[in-house]
Amino acid sequence: MNTTVDLDNPTLAEKTTAIEQLRGKLSDEVNSYCSDSAAAMVNEWYQWRKDARIDDLPIAQPNNVFPVPYPIRGYHSVADANLTAGMRVSDMQLKLNKVFGGGCWHKRDKDGHPVYIERAGRYHIKDIPKMSTMNGLFEFHFMMQEFLNRTIFPECSEIAGCEISKQVVIFDMAGISIGMLSHWPALNMLREMLSKDQLYYPECMHLTYIVNAPSMFVTAWKLIRSWLDPRVISKIHILGKDHADVLLKQIPDYNLPAFLGGSCRCSHMPGGCVPSVPLNNFPDLPRKAFVSLRHQVQISYTHPRHSFVYNLSPTEFDPPPTPLSSPLMGYASWLGIKRDSARASAPPSPVQSRTRYIYLRFTADHGRGIVVEVLWRSSNDAANEDGTLIYPEVLFDPQRAPIVLEIESPNRSGQLVFNWRIANFDEGQAPFPDPQEAQVPIQLEYSVDTEESLVEEFDLLPIKHD
Ligand SMILES: [Zn+2]
Hints:
Jelly Rolls; 15 strands
């Protein structure tokens, strides 16, 4: 044949011809085997997606407001986020979050593959069966796989300019005990998970690094590798404590967390690069009622800035009779309230305070992108008029899906200041608008979400609007 086929973009007719030509070259026996088994696999895959209602799973994407199923750092289609106790997060996800060691899609490798990091050594393995059934675990796991396929791979492909459909996985075994490696129910769960992945999500692993593997891991690995396809095994690298050089060959220094030998710390996010409840760098997430304080404002190139201030101060407050069991205990310490009468009669509390977060959601529908910063002005600190930066300036692309920021609040009363501005001419990717376009107002919509009881008890009030 003299015609040239564009291998990257074959037409349907070209594909059909190619398949027929290939069939013609195979023996009848091979041909029937291939087509039957392939058809059976595809049918089974479709049936499974239907039965497990995979397409109905609430997967976070740029065009919806679903929460992320797992923490994410360094992507633009979904902003940096942790798991939150929001409305669309199931109780099972919150329970598992307590006993999982912590995982995160953390930026990209040098070839543009997403990097997934799991603190595998920090799992509270024995508690997992208490928190979830096998089906519950599968659902959680499939949500992660779907998030990877529907949201992360498309973005990585767009950035790399070629199809990216495989990820790099790092299992950090630091903290693992012999009890975990020989815990049969956990190994059984792992085997089930691996078999489902090989069946329903094949070929989506580029490389896997198992780092900080202790010498006793060798025995467990002999067992685990017997469950894996030989092609999968060839892509798995087992490394001890000296793993940094190997990882840095694949992942840029600034994209690799410091605890794995890189320089990234993600200090703008609670929990840093890979939040972990068992490691205590991220709080457990009890389900609470959240209220959303909504605002809508127009900005433009002639008025490119917008600020909003919340006053956080306690209202009249009577200490509850049983302070230790009261959820207000945490708020009291957050806001620095002295409650001597309660303390005097109470034994030392294990719950001194917990980190509090305020969730800021916003969308800016067009423009060059929007820059956000958040400041804290202590009410006792008149000298520091400008306040303390608690979320430094970050530029976000304009998008209709809300960007959700999780902002850690200091343990004091005062004012929370949100500042927005349109990106300057030397920031961002989008071209500077022409004079006519610059006249079109940009709709900025935002809401501040916070725990309902916090608003009720502490009078979270908007005080200034400009
Ligand atoms: Zn990081």
